[in-house]
Design a protein that fits this description.
The chain contains nine helices and eleven strands. It is an alpha/beta fold.
Length: about 350
Amino acid sequence: MTSRSDGPALSIVVPTVDDTAALEETLVSVLENRPDDCEIVVPIACRYDDPWNISEEVRFVTAPPHAGFASCANLGIAASRGRVIHVLAAGWRATHGWADAALARFSDGSAAGGVAAVVPLVVSGTDVRHVVSAGIRLTRGGRRVAVVPRRSRRDGTSAGVDVARLRPSSPILQAGFWRADVLAATGEGFATVCGNDWCDADMGITIEAIGGRVVVADDACVVEGPTPQPTRGFAHGLYAERVFWRSLAARSLLPSVLLHAWEVVRSALLGAPLGTVPTLLGRAVALLQFGNYIAHAHRMRGIRAAMSAEADDTPTTVRIDEPHLSVAPPHRRRRGETQFRKSA
C-alpha cells in the first residue's frame, strides 16, 4: 500500500473486468459528482484505448488478463492514496453528493471502535425511488443475506427508509466505502479465496473481529448497475464454507456451529436435486482446510491488538482550530459542457 498521510480524503476505485462501455457510464457519473479532494483509480483487465483522453483525470492501472472483480479491486486499492476507499463497479452510477454524505459518517481516530465502513443506499436503475440494497449481513450460521429496507424511497429523499433498523455487517462489494487502514491491515485486501460473491461478507467479519463499526448513509445513493450471476454448486459450497469458518474469528464457536449445521441442510435442500452433491462436496473441501482458519483467527486477534494500541496512542483532545477530515463541495459541470473531451 502506498503512503496515505499526504493523500486525498477519498480514492474512488472502479474495477473493470471486461465492459468498457459500462466503465464510461460510471466515469461520467463520477466526474460529474465527484468532490474536489479525491482521486479516481481504474484497475482494468481488458484493453481500453481512452478515446476521450481522460488520463489526466483518471489513473488507469493494468490488471492481469482474466482477473476477477475482487482481484481488480485489490489492485486499485493498492495503487490508491486516499484515506477512505470507495469501490464502485463499472456500470453503477454515482449521484449528486453521494461521496460527501458517506465521508461525513466516518469518525476520527483509528478503525478500532470507530466507523470502518459506510454503506450507501443502492437504488434501482429503472426506478430511483426504489431501494434495492443497503449492504449485506452474514448470519451466525453463515448465510449471506441482502439487507433491503422494508419501504421504498419517496421523491428522491430518504423519507420512507427506516435506516435505524438496518444492521448490515458490510457494504456490498460493488458499492461501498471503506477505511483504507482497515483494508491495509488485513494484508490481502478482499480475500479472493472467498470468491467475488463472498469476499464482502468476509471483510465484514474482519471489521467485526477488530471492533470496527458499519453504518448506513441514507443520503448517499448509488444507482445499481449490472450484477454477475452468483456462483452455484461446488464453488458456492466452497466459498460459503470458507467464510463461515473464517467468521469464527469474531464469533463464539458452539452457537455458530449449531446454526451452521442447519444452514448446510437448508442450502442442500434448496439446491436439490442437481446442486446438492456439488455444493456439499465444495463444503467438504473447504472443511479440510481447517488449519488455515485457525491461522486466520490468530491474525485477526493480532490486527485488533495493533489497532487498539494505535487508538490508545492517539490524543483524545480535539482542537477546534485544527482542520477536520472533510471534502469540498461536489464538482459541478457548467451548462453545455461535457466531462469527456474527444482526443485529437
